[in-house]
Amino acid sequence: xxLSVPARIISIDGDMADVSAGGAIFRAGLQMIDNPxxxxxxxxxxGFAIMKISEKEALETLRLLQEMRDSLE
Amino acid sequence: xxxVFMKYIDEYRDSKLxxxxxxxxxxxxxxxxxxxxxxxxxxxxxxxxGIRDILPQNIRLISGPGCPVCVTGKDFIDRAIAMSGIDxxxxxxxxxxxxxxxxxxxxxxxxxxxADIRVVFSALEALDLAERFPExxxxxxxxxxxxxxxxxxxxxxxxxxKNIRNFFVLSAHKLMPPAMEAIIKDGTGINGFICPGHxxxxxxxxxxxxxxxxxxTACVVTGFEPVDILQSVLxxxxxxxxxxxxxxxxxxxxxxxxGNLRARKYLGQVFEPGDAIWRGLGIVPESGLVxxxxxxxxxxxxxxxxxxxxxxxxxxCICGDILRGLRTPSDCTLFGxxxxxxxxxxxxxxxxxxxxxxxxxxxxxx
Lengths: 73, 366
What we know:
The structure holds two protein chains of two kinds. Chain A is built from one helix and five strands, in the order E-E-E-E-E-H. By secondary structure, chain A is of the alpha+beta class. Chain A has a five-stranded antiparallel β-sheet, with no helix packed on it. Chain B is an alpha/beta fold. The longest helix of chain B is centred in the middle third of the chain and has 17 residues, at 226-242. Chain B starts with 14 loop residues before the first helix and ends in a 5-residue tail after the last helix. At the A-B interface, strand 1, strand 3, strand 4, strand 5 and helix 1 of A face helix 1, helix 2, helix 7, helix 8 and helix 10 of B.
């Protein structure tokens, strides 16, 4: 019950959304996130979107790791 | 998911990055290190991806108390079962709790004997039940940490807004940082915490600062993919080597210093901290979330006061010690023999995030 998974917002209806995660569609409450938009990636936890995932930060982490990898080769 | 690229998952399972991190960890690790992964989700990922086999022998990972079902005391199950017998009651619970043994039996057995206990995926689903069955009393079992509790808070705010009179919450919600402090005080000799990433999406990394500041224990807030976990181990090793414990965020794509302010506002509006009983840790001060007076009419524990007798454990199950990082499932005489996932003795064998269940699934009982 305590797992959170990345999910993409498919459609928004008031403060609820349909989100897609791992090939399945779930209902998710949007009360905890600011300005949700269709296409946003969020963390889905116990029926709520608890955080928007930051694309910028995700790419930055991967870039730093890639640099580390290059420097070791 | 077959063959379909999953954004924010697959990139963090890249075998070349994993190899790079493993090599970096090996060359940086010059002493002995014990790190605790607090969250059951991390324990599951560590076993699923074989992280322990990738790490050098001088780095030990131990499991912690971050499995909400596991730390829920037997007294809570006993109380929930007693409440399920109230006239016209529908009890709504997350599925994991159904099979946790109470003093005499589990919610699943209570359900089979006629109580109306239903599995829901969210607190809002429980609130829907209250609207659909206005003549019934819906009691939602609120378990989980800072990640799950805001959902309960949202449901309670909606119940107040819509003036729903037949929705109640029995709260066993808990806070992670006080439990981590209790574990340090226990003296398990931990050098660093792999801090719970999803708890931190809500609380922010600042919630762990007193741990590195006051106790000198390294902290890295960590994501749940293998690259995340290995990068965090490297960050922890570097912190320990430098002798400069701090709180760092590895899981920057989901965690900030101050967390989710909206969710924190819901939490603060509905709940206040109170002492709570943890399986293994006993009573930990200010580590639970109780409903504020304003929400008293939704508080199942005061609306339906019942006296419940909880039987002491017979001492054979070591779930409590496992949750404190003192022993591992393979130290238990019941593990994999008397206690198996389909017939669990202790809570740690029930949940997918419980250490015993995870060890069993990944073959550590053989």
